[in-house]
Amino acid sequence: MDNVKSYVEEHKDRFVSELVDLLKIPSISADSKFKNEMITTAQAVKTELEKAGCDLVEICDTPGHPVVYGEKIIDKNLPTVLVYGHYDVQPPDPLDLWNSPPFEPVIKETALHPDGAIFARGACDDKGQMYMHVKALEYMTKTNQLPCNVKFMIEGEEEVGSKHLGWFIENNIEKLQNDVILISDTSMIAKDVPSITTGLRGLSYMEVEVTGPNRDLHSGLYGGTVGNPINILTKLISSLTDENNHITIPGFYYNVEELSAEERAKMAEAPYNEEEYKKKLDINDVYGEAGFSTLERGSIRPTLDVNGIWGGYIGEGAKTVLPSKAFAKISMRLVPNQDWQEISELFKKHFESIAPKAVTVKVNAHHGGYAYVTPIDNDAYKAASKAYEKTFGKTPIPQRSGGSIPIVSLFEKALKSKIILMGFGQDTDAIHSPNEHFGIWNYLKGIETIPYFYQNFADSQK
Amino acid sequence: MDNVKSYVEEHKDRFVSELVDLLKIPSISADSKFKNEMITTAQAVKTELEKAGCDLVEICDTPGHPVVYGEKIIDKNLPTVLVYGHYDVQPPDPLDLWNSPPFEPVIKETALHPDGAIFARGACDDKGQMYMHVKALEYMTKTNQLPCNVKFMIEGEEEVGSKHLGWFIENNIEKLQNDVILISDTSMIAKDVPSITTGLRGLSYMEVEVTGPNRDLHSGLYGGTVGNPINILTKLISSLTDENNHITIPGFYYNVEELSAEERAKMAEAPYNEEEYKKKLDINDVYGEAGFSTLERGSIRPTLDVNGIWGGYIGEGAKTVLPSKAFAKISMRLVPNQDWQEISELFKKHFESIAPKAVTVKVNAHHGGYAYVTPIDNDAYKAASKAYEKTFGKTPIPQRSGGSIPIVSLFEKALKSKIILMGFGQDTDAIHSPNEHFGIWNYLKGIETIPYFYQNFADSQK
C-alpha cells in the first residue's frame, strides 16, 4: 500500500469533486417530499461503486428507502470486510442559520481546516465518510492491492432509525456474511489526536401530543378555566428530570452499566479542556447530571433531550390564544444494558400516567437502538489501530462516543461479527447542524488510512 | 325608535352583505405583510360611516395603523356618545383547522344559529360588532331620530395591544370629548340571557428567548453535557405556577383585588353548567387555580398562559438535534389594582433570575393593559340595561368578563367618561380561533338594541 499517499495526492481533486456532486442531491430521509432524491442518490452511489471496482452492485428495495449493495469477491478463502454507511442526511433546517445553501456545497478554509472544508448537509455525516471507503477501494483495485473480499451496504434510513435495515439483513444473511464490519460514521478527537470509537449510546426517540380543549380558545375568556396544553406539556417534560438532572422515569436506570473507578479514571485521561469547550460553544457553564464529569455525561451516562417543541401561535407579534394542542419530540440516549424498547415503553407508561385529567396525551415511539461497546483486544481493532499508527504516526485513543448508530448492535447479533468504527470527522464538523462541513484533509486522510486496515486485517487472518 | 325592528327587517340582507364585504379584507394587524390591507379596510370603514350619515370622517395616521374617526354633531348642547371599535383582526392560523377560508365569508346555519351565522375571521371580533353601531347610526339618521351627537373612533391595532391609540387620544383630547363611551367587543351569556360586561381583565404579554450553545448541536455528541434550551425553558415555565396553580412570581398577587363573600355569591348565581361546559370543549376536567370556581378563575382571578412555544426540529419525522434556542410567548391576565407594567417588570426580573448559568435568557414585553370595572348605578349603565329590556324583554345580567380590552382603562383616565360594554356576541363564536363566526340574529339584534341606548341616555341627560 506504500503508494497510497501519492495516489491520493494525484487524484484528490477528483475525489473532492465526486463528493461535491453527491452532496448536491438533497437525500433527506425524514421528509417524504424527497423520495425521488433518495432514489437519485442511491443510483449515484451505485455508479461510484461500479467505477471503484465492484463486480456486482444492486439497488435493493426495502419497505422504505432502498439499500445500495456492492461487492468485490476476489477469493472465497480470503476474509471479507463489510463496509456500512448511509447516503441519507438529516433535514437541513433551520435554513436561515446556514451561511450557504445546504445542498450547494462550497469549499472554504477555516482555522481548523487550512486546506479547506466542504460545507454541505451530509458532507461528513455520512456521504463524505462513506465515500472515503469507495475511494479507498478504487485505490486498492486500480493498483491490484486489494488483499481480501469487500462488501458494501449503504442504506438510506440511518437518520430515521434504520427502520428497515433489520428487515434487509434478515433477508440477506448469506449475502452479507463477513469477518468484520467497518464503519466511518463517527469522529476522532483531533487531527493530531487520532481515536477509534469503542462505544456508542443507544437511543429511544419519542413524540408526545397533549390535547386540551377541542379548539383553540381565547386566552382571556378561557384562561384560568381549562388546561392549557402548553403549560401542562412544560410541567410534564420538566418533571422528567429532577433538580440533579437525574431522569425520573421509574425503572429508567435499572440496567444502566456502572463503570469502575479505573475505567472512569482512564476516561479522564483523554485530552479535554472545559474552558475551551465552553468557549467554542459560547456558554457560561456546562449542564447535566450531578455526580459525573462532562465527558462522562456525554458518553457513559443516559440523557433525555427535547429535540423539538411546538404549540400555539409562533408567528410574528402577539396572539392571545389558548391552543388546543401542544407537541414535543423527546429522545433519550441510552447506555449498555438498557433495552431501548423497554425504555420506550417505560417512557410512554410514565408520561401518560402523570398527565392531569384536564388533557389527553398521546405518546408514539419514532425509533431507537441499543448501545454498543467494542472490545479492543481483537484482530480487527488491532488492525485499525496499526493503520492509524502508519498514517498518523500515533496510536489512536479508544474512545466512547455519545452518539448512536442504532443499527450497530443488530449487526453484531445478526451477522455475528465485530464492528470497527474508524471515524475521520471531528466534533466541530457541525453534523446535524447548520453549516455542516468535512475537512478535505480529513477526507483524504481517511482514504489513505483505510487500505492499511485491509492489509493489516487480511494479514492477521492468514 | 319604534320602527327600528321593521327598518332592520327591511334592510337586513344589505346589512349582512355589507359586513361580508368588509370581512373579505385580511386586516391582520400583527403581521406586517398586511399593511396595505389595513389601509383598504380603514377606507372601507370610512365609506360606510359616510353612508351612515357622519358629516365628517377622516383616516387619521398614527405611528402604526391608522384610526378611522367619524362624527355627526347635531347640537353642541346635546350629550355625545363616543363609539369605540376596531377594524383589525387576529391572525387566522392554524389555517388547516378552518372549514372555510378565513377571509372568504360563508353563511351557515348552526344549532345555536338557526338563522345562520357568518363564518370569517373578524366576523364577531370586531368587524361585526363594530358594524352594528354603523348600521344603528344609519337607522337613526335616515329616520331623523338621532337624539344626541355621536363620534366614532375605530382603530386598527386592538389585536396588538392598541400600541398607538394612547398617542392618538393624547393628541385629540378635544375632538374626542364625550359623555359616554360605547363599545361592543364583548359577549353576552346567551340569546335568552342578555348580559352587560361590567369588568375586563388586564393583560401583560411577554416573549422569552432561551439561548444555550451558539449553534444547533448533535444530541448524541452533546446530550448530557450542555444546557438544552428547550429542556430548560420547560423547567422555567413550569416553575411559574405551583402545584395549586398559584403563580409563583414574587409580588404577583400583591395588589390583587379580593372579592367579598357576597360578591362571590352573586357571581355564582349566573347561569352556568360545568358538565355542559366540559362537553362543549371535549375535556374530562376543568383546570386552574385551587380555591376558586371555574367562573371565578375565568374572570376575577389573574392567570398565566403560554400562548405559543417553539424550538428545535418541528418537522416530519425525527431529528436528533440539541437546539441553540427555544422561545415562548407568555401572557398574564390581570385583575383590578394590578399594574400591568409593574407585573411585566416582575415577570422579567423573576424569569431572568431563575435561569441557570448554562443558558442566557432574553425577556421582552409585547404589550399590556389595565383591568377595568364599571359601576352599574350610573345613567349610562341604566340606559343600556333599559335598552336590552326593550328588545330582549329581560333585564341584562351584569357580568365580569375574563377578556381584556387593554385600552378601556385609558379611555376613562384620558377622556374622563364611563365606558359601557354592550356585547352581542357569544362565547361560542370562536373569536381568536379557527371558524370564528357571528350569528346573524345577534348582529341584527345589536342593530335593533343600540338606538334605544341613545334614546335612554339622551333622555337621562335632559
UniProtKB/TrEMBL annotation, chains A, B:
<keyword id="KW-0645">Protease</keyword>
<dbReference type="InterPro" id="IPR002933">
    <property type="entry name" value="Peptidase_M20"/>
</dbReference>
<dbReference type="Pfam" id="PF01546">
    <property type="entry name" value="Peptidase_M20"/>
</dbReference>
<dbReference type="InterPro" id="IPR051458">
    <property type="entry name" value="Cyt/Met_Dipeptidase"/>
</dbReference>
<keyword id="KW-0378">Hydrolase</keyword>
<dbReference type="GO" id="GO:0046872">
    <property type="term" value="F:metal ion binding"/>
</dbReference>
<dbReference type="GO" id="GO:0006508">
    <property type="term" value="P:proteolysis"/>
</dbReference>
<dbReference type="GO" id="GO:0008233">
    <property type="term" value="F:peptidase activity"/>
</dbReference>
<feature type="domain" description="Peptidase M20 dimerisation">
    <location>
        <begin position="199"/>
        <end position="357"/>
    </location>
</feature>
<dbReference type="Pfam" id="PF07687">
    <property type="entry name" value="M20_dimer"/>
</dbReference>
<keyword id="KW-0479">Metal-binding</keyword>
<dbReference type="InterPro" id="IPR011650">
    <property type="entry name" value="Peptidase_M20_dimer"/>
</dbReference>
<protein>
    <submittedName>
        <fullName>Peptidase, family M20/M25/M40 and dimerization domain</fullName>
    </submittedName>
</protein>
